[in-house]
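Title: Request for sanity check on Glycerol 3-phosphate dehydrogenase prediction

Description:
We are preparing a figure and want to confirm that the structure record we downloaded matches what your pipeline produces today. Could someone re-run it with the sequence below and paste the raw structure tokens into this thread? We only need the token string, no images.
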Amino acid sequence: MVVVIGGGCTGLGVAWDLILRGVPVTVVEARELGSGTSGRFHGLLHSGGRYAVTDPVSAKQCRQENEVLRRIAPSAVESVGGYFVSVDDGVESYMRDWIAGTQSAGIPVTEVSVETAIRRLPGLNPRVQRAFAVADAVLKGFELLDLLRVNGERRGVTILTETRVTQVQTVNGQVSGISVRTKDGERRIPCDAVVNAAGPWAGQVAQLFGERVQMELSSGLMLIYSNRMVPSVVNRLAPPGDGDIVVPHGRTVILGTTEVPQVDPEPPEPTRESAEYLQSLGQAMFPEMNRWRILRAFVGVRPLFEGNGVVPQSRVSRDFTVVDHGRQGGLQGAFSVMGGKWTTFRLMGERTADVVVEYLHQSSPSISAHTVLEPDAPREKHSASSTICECERVSEAQLLDQMAEPFDNWRTRTWFAMGPCQGTMCAHRAVSLRMQYTDVEGGLDELTNLRRERERGVRPVAWGTNARELALTEALSCQTLAEGVAHDHLR
């Protein structure tokens, strides 16, 4: 039996590949699935074009996995297409290198006329010089995580959330089990191997193996705009930098991103200064972006890894590394997978599983590239039909289907509180519904946590309409609903 530490796309990808080979797997996640980097990205399914010059290995991997994910998870991919547009002077040399790089990586590229690009991409800078169409798409991260969960559990994967690994147990220098801490106390899980797939926390988890792993972490700010102003992905054709990609996602558009080196795996708080800086960069592609209705800001942490730890952040590869610690003189049965990105998660799972099954003396090949992730079976219909969240059209029936799930999963699986009002009009209704139908304690704590989490993303962009909306939220929750007063009274 194998334990995978980390419930993001990498950990679930490793578990999925292993279970398809007949290897029993338990996934252990300290929080909820996708609560780390996997739930904090801009949603791009890469064509490979973004890395055609700087990272040819990743470029080719992205092109290949783009095709695979469209085939095995079609419901989680939106084929919006993408463009690389040149809006800067003095990048002719880079443009030539980019065209050569896409050809070398086998990335399909079609040049379109400037007139065509401006017609297809409303608001595009009229100073655009050249434009190229690529096979970028949108990856619906939370939906794909749920597909991995459902299909994994269907085949026998055990998934433990809110469970923290405290110790890796050994016998004669080999992994024999792990100790975990849950809300119900400590327990031991016997296993033959442990895979560290903890993303930004991989360095901390490696310490449980007695290893020192130097991660090259960086944080990236992203801005969400409340209307789908752009129908396709738009990349700035220039050397990689901040604020050079726009991704349509559902009914919104996401502008990314920045790159700030950091040590802490926890994402930092977004700031107004960084939000204004990012938006100003985005205006190079869409000059009227400052007039778009902004929804919120959020920050993700890239779990980059470079073996020697001395490569500048901007040059760290987006490729990934699988480490067999036993072969390097460390603990037998301990493995780490580090680096990579959402687009290549399945390949990361396959390569990691290859190493693990070899250690377990098994020879079953990977079939994850050809196994379709089937959606969950339709749930029983509830008679309730009232609307809880008007912005995202989430009904009471949808939330009743999720009643046993943690409160934050309601948000990521139904999208409630994710629309323009950011939970102002629906958060208290959802909590009331939960308290009405379950005996779960802490409903008011859940409401407070949701309010704080939503405010964390809104406050850095609280200018214009957003500032008025934030004031309305505070007035409704504190004055009209008396949430703070009621909560303090019950304490």
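Thanks, this matches our download. The longest strand covers residues 294-305.
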